[in-house]
Amino acid sequence: MDMKKMENVKKLSDAVEFVERARRAGGSVLSHCWWGMNRSVTLIVAYLMKYGSGMGINEATALVAETRPQANPYGEVLNLYKKNYLDAKVGK
Question: Keyword annotations for this protein (predicted)?
Fold first, then answer.
């Protein structure tokens, strides 16, 4: 597997945990990228997958698209995140 992709998935996991720590501390986080359709959406979809009542990629993307119609997260990164950070935890 491409190590760069796995580094990005690790960074995504770290960002998801950052958002959750901020939420639990009563804070908020702004997720934004240049067009607001790929990177920022990928983070929010990953967050919803982990902390949004077990949403899948499609369900979480559809929810984000309700307010951000141009939402187009990085599916390959989300699939790797699911496989390495969500599914791995369930099986253990």
Answer: Hydrolase, Protein phosphatase
- Write the CB contacts of 62 (distance below 8 Å, at least 6 apart in sequence): none
Is residue 85 over pLDDT 50?
yes
Q: For residues 42 and 73, is the Cβ–Cβ distance under 8 A?
A: yes
Which residues participate in catalysis according to the annotation?
33
CA proximity to 8, closest of 43, 60, 48, 49? 43
CATH number of 3-83: 3.90.190.10
pTM of this structure: 0.90
Cα of 31 vs its chain's centroid, Å: 11
Range from 20-29, 31-40, 41-50 carrying the lowest mean pLDDT: 31-40
Average pLDDT in the chain? 91
